[in-house]
Amino acid sequence: MSSAYDATRADEPITDAERRQLHEVWAQPRGWRRFSEINNSVIGFYYLVTALGFLFAGGILALLIRLQLAVPDNTLLSPETYNQVFTMHGTTMMFLFAVPAVEAVAVYLLPQMLGARDLPFPRLSAFGYWCYLFGGILAFSSLFFGIAPDGGWFMYAPLTTSAYSPGINADVWLLGIGFIEISAITAAIEIIVGVLRTRAPGMSLNRIPLFGWYMLVTATMILFGFPPMLLGDALLELQRALDLPFFDANRGGDPLLWQHLFWMFGHPEVYIIFLPAAGIVSMILPTFAQRPFVGYHWAVLGAIGVGFLSFALWVHHMFATGLPHISLSFFSAASMLVVIPNAIQFFCWIATLWLGKPLFKLPMLYLVGFFSVFLIGGLTGVMVAVLPFDWQAHDTYFIVAHLHYVLIGGMVFPLLAGIVYWLPASTGRMMDERLGKIAFWLLFSGFNLAFLPMHWTGLIGMPRRIYTYGADMGWSGLNMASTIGALVLAAGFALFAYAVVHAARRGRQAPDNPWNAGTLEWVEGIPLRKHGFTSVPIIRSRYPAWEQPELAAEVREGRHHLAHARNARRETIVTTAVDARPDYVLALPHPTWIPMITAILVTVCFVSLTFKATSVALVAAVLIIPMLYLWVWRTPAPVGEVVDAGRGLTLPAFVSGPRSVLYSGVTVSLIFDAIAFGALVFSYLYLFTVRGLPWPPAGYPLDDLATAGIPALLALALLAVGMLALRLLRQDRRGLTGMAVAVALALQAGAFAALLAWMRPISATADAYGATVWTLAGYAMAHLAVSAIMAVYVLIALAAGRLSAGRPLALENTERVNRFSALLMLITLALISLFPRIIGHG
Amino acid sequence: MKTPTLPLPCLVVALAALSPFAAMAVEPLQSAVDPRSPAAGDIAFIWWLLLAGGTLIFVGVMTLLLFAMLSRRPRRPVGARLFIVGGGLVFPGVVLSALLVYTVIVGARITAPPADDALQIDVTAQMWWWDVRYRDPDGDGSAFLVTANELRIPVGKPVLLRLHSADVIHSFWVPNLSGKVDMIPGRVNRLTLQADAAGTYRGQCAEFCGLQHSRMALHVVAEPVADWERWVAQRREVPAEPAGDVLQRGRRVFLETGCVACHAVRGVSNPPPGLAPDLTHVGSRPSIGAGLLTNTPGNLAAWIASAQSLKPGSKMPSFHNLDGESLTALAAYLASLE
Amino acid sequence: MDDYPPPRPTAPDRDTRASAWHLAAPPAVFLVHFGAVYGWTGLACGLGWAAQRWGGVTVVHIGILLLTAVALAVLWSTRPPAEPEAPSEIENPYDPAERRHFIATTSRMLVWLVTVATVMVALTSVFARSCAGGL
Q1: Do C131 and A326 touch (CB under 8 A)?
Q2: Is some CB atom of chain B closer than 8 A to the CB atom of C17?
Q3: Position A515 in a domain
């Protein structure tokens, strides 16, 4: 309780000089330096524009597909080209448009909705964006050189292994997906920590705008869903590049392992795309129903329910693979169960409209499109969850129709509604009603004409991914209808794009809260500012613009928190995760080239690996390390010990330990890492269940326990020394800390060498068993290397006097990674050495 | 904004809704909604049930939604809980549980294996054709009859298919008779196939398998039991010597041009199995090139001369150097192998 | 507005941990149960134990039943007590009453959702009796 606080008086208004400084500190640099900006509002905008660019690029590919299929026996596209086009259409839409687009909306709008000046890791977002941009352009442009991926967006092995796809095409796919993984995980870290820790004071869990809840669930799903795919990609590339036979049935591998890993990601992926869109709907609907959302906690329940149930659905993409009927029935049940949380959300929306006084404005028209199209997609979703029906519908145009109803209905229509809705917030101008209406009806009718007949096309026998069909098949009329529909749909998209550009340039000026919305982003007026609010508002309700009428004026006059940038620093308030009590003031980085340069180096590294220019890749990889050092080195240091946050509130300028967002960020990364390792352990156990006893398979002797003992002891020593180092630093004995870290470094090198020596007798290419245990060991060794790189940084920071008992964060995080690596190593040793003994290796 | 009443979009949507019925006028060559077996019949029934139920729910929910959105009359305050619990939890919970139990029971019936004495056929998919081997019922699992891209089965009798793959993942799908089952390297999947009526049923690979995935079809010919037994008996005989100069010459071309390196003809050539379709009775098959062309001597000649432009990427080379007479003779010889 | 500004937290307090636990536990139980029955069935079918019976019931189903019973017991033990609805007018924005009610209600409903889901997954196996693959 601060003595300076006076409950009866709001803070002094912000002075003109302070206001000017606030704007200057947050201003985007001009000229070339504008691209060094890292503010999430700017990066979010770039993200969204890029994603929409890829939507149009993917749309052109869709038109090519439709033109090829318009008439039977068409020769517009050769089979090679067609296979590349449909593969890149799916890949572009899923990875280069849909996922980045929802991340874009999130990083663009969340700071405004949560009342933060910025999310906690702007450099990370910028890095993710540049990786996405470079990787996306590279992957897409492979089409122009005829080396685009051609194995389908699902890339089933063994078709995509080098035996059947010797060209570089599949590697290009893996390259592109690598970048998307990076951008997804950076966005997930940013969103999870951002939603939990940078909400405005008072915005407790029950007052988060629903979009925030949906994004929290989505980001958590990315955290659990993307690692299996990352691992699958790594295994596939290892098989392609180094002949490790994970998916080769002749050498003990199993093609279905790829499908499991892919769909463990691939199904949650659908909901990773849909949930943010549902969040957008839940933000727009109350505005036009002119009442608060009905059933807030039901919607949160729905989001969480969809989130976790979607991880129990992956095998419903594998209903025809011949798995036991019992196993399939679990997934059939779960696929139907996921309807329940979705239906709960749906009926919350109906109830909100029913109990409100709905106004039928332009965004609502797009929501009608969403409701009707997505409802059909949901109903056909139930149909394909039915095992016997799916045995017919699977891999036919029925599925093509279903998935487009779900994705275009469930994601694109809400996104368009969101663009119409937040356009004034972004540009200060409104979309022309007439243009918006015509565009909608073109989109809606074109969509239905294109995709409604496809259900039937599938039922009368047309499989997916065929480049042509005979005139006698009886599919010609329906395909022509679909092609005409696709052209109308494309016209709708073009007109919508025109309407947006037209609005941004010449649209009608919008009033401050044009839709009379209730949520925070509209409170201080439009267009939105890069620093969010003049003063960070104190929140007492879910709809502050409706329920705290005094808020707009107070916030604008700077009478709430942190109405200054006195340290000439970008800063935001970090609050506690549950009740959003002010915790400390986080100093944020200013515009910097580091994220972009790092992204360029990563790009050079990945691309040269793809084209087998190993030495270039090595140089780039080595250069990344000093860039990362610089990155951490340039993490803004606090000015002074405390910051005056206004209203008599004084907050610390620095914290360490679990309270720090940097600590939380590392926690989230480690969870991601642990899930990826879990997927690898799954692969090992999966190959065991496919293969059965003896384990290890014939030809592989089981080591004697003593040889596994040496690396195990080194790992235990590493654990102990790491903890000791942290303890010494907390006692401020920096010299001894340095020595302990040096010893840890030596132990890491020793453990690395010991693991390598231990693995030597095992062949990685003779059998999938050897490939998997080598990958397990390699995973642990990679972590030892990362720990060592971090330990070197700690030594540098110690020498420079940057670490002390009061500033232990760098060592804390290094220590956690070190501990994690040692644990990975112990688990790996146990899996390879103890597990076969426990199951009685036959 | 006024209530939307736009004639054009309504027209387009109506067109979209009607187009399937317009398309019914053309008889599709393969169809899941024209079932000719108990399993396909069960599934088609489930489809019509799902369609009816889905349509009812769609109309109901959209009516509720549009009424809530557009009606200007003051509405009775219905409790939010009734909406959300009733519509979101109870209704889908009850309907889906019933659906799940019913369809899992049907699924169990469909997946049940046939009796032990059922005919067993090994089908091996490869890029991009089907190798078909009938198992000797009394033997050690060896084949007594080899063919390709066609299956002949007796009407009304369940047949057990063992599905293999020689390279990448394929999927066996004959929509009028059954759902699809993937063919996965290293695994053997099973499928019970039965036809209730005599006829030729087309099927097609349903899992993307590379360049010519589109051109990988097969035919299931169902015949009355007596006809089928006659066919088997005939298949067991070694084909007769070709009669006449043209056919003799055709056989010579067959032996000298390199066909025999890959293609087997019983009594004539015997390459390692699985390289290329067995041609012992190729003349009686419905199609050539795995459903690519109807089987006529002219098409056979076209296929031999220019397989690579008809089906680029397949393992069959284009023998465009053959002179016209040899080509005609070879095609005539192959067509005579009935 | 007496306790404003709020006392600054020093570490995640008990409320934080409890909120996280109550929201995360039911989904975790569902996923672990689901993974366990799926893994168990795969193992039992793969190793050919499926045909073995014990008192007329197959080993597969006995395993599923046991796993489900354990899951439900764990699930209901995580269920938090109900919290009263908070008054709608609040003075102090950091008053936890409203949030407590929200977390308790949501996680209690989650427990119900997971109960339905777990039971439905387990029950399905009764109707899908066989390990036979494909069609």
Answers
A1: yes
A2: no
A3: no
